[in-house]
Amino acid sequence: MARLSPAEKVVASYNRARIFTYEDKFDEAMAELDQGAAIEPDHPLVKTFRARALYYHGDVVKAAEMLEQVLEQQPQLDGIRPIYATFLSALGFSDEARAQITDEVKEAANIDHDVAYWLASAYAIEGERDEALKWLRRAIELGNENRAWFERDQNWDTLRKDPEYQQIIQSISTPASEG
């Protein structure tokens, strides 16, 4: 087995936590994040993915507080602002959520498939259908084809039956459908 440097272990921990979050395995996600935090307690992405796990586990307030702290310490992390916007929207703070969607966020989303998806999700939960679908398409163009997650992500519940959303999701090929 290859040995990882401490920095690589941190990256591996939050990436494994992402997968566990996608699979609704909250305890496993938190255990992974604990391992990363043991090496680098203030790592902004460890905290970001912990906040996402908390959000999807139903602790929206704690998730929002955690991301607010990350952004206070690292205001240049525009890529995570859509995640924070989603949390704010879920708490009913629409104006504050929309304030997170800056030109810098859109620039980051235009080149990063994760940020594009997070931005799409922020628009979806805000009820901004056209922007949500536009950024979902962009996320897919950039290589984010996590169809199984897209179909389960609670942020898309209001658009789940939208024909255009369905068309976009159906356009993603999966290994099982290629053959």
How would you describe what is shown here?
With 179 residues, this protein is mostly helical. It folds into 2 domains: 8-75, Serine Threonine Protein Phosphatase 5, Tetratricopeptide repeat, CATH 1.25.40; 102-172, no CATH class. The protein is 69% helix and 0% strand. It has helices at residues 6-22, 26-39, 44-56, 60-73, 81-90, 94-99, 103-111, 113-126, 129-141, 147-152, 163-170. Helix 1 packs antiparallel against helix 2, helix 5 runs parallel beside helix 8 and helix 7 crosses helix 8. The longest helix is centred in the first third of the chain and has 17 residues, at 6-22.
Summed up:
It is built from eleven helices and no strands. The protein has 179 residues and is an all-alpha fold.
- Count every beta strand, where a strand is a DSSP E run of 2 or more residues: 0
Mean of residue pLDDT? 92
Oligomer: single chain
Instruction: Please tell me what the overall shape is.
Output: globular
Tell me the series of helices and strands, N- to C-terminal.
HHHHHHHHHHH
Strand content: under 5%
How many separate structural domains? Answer: 2
- How large is the count of helical segments? 11
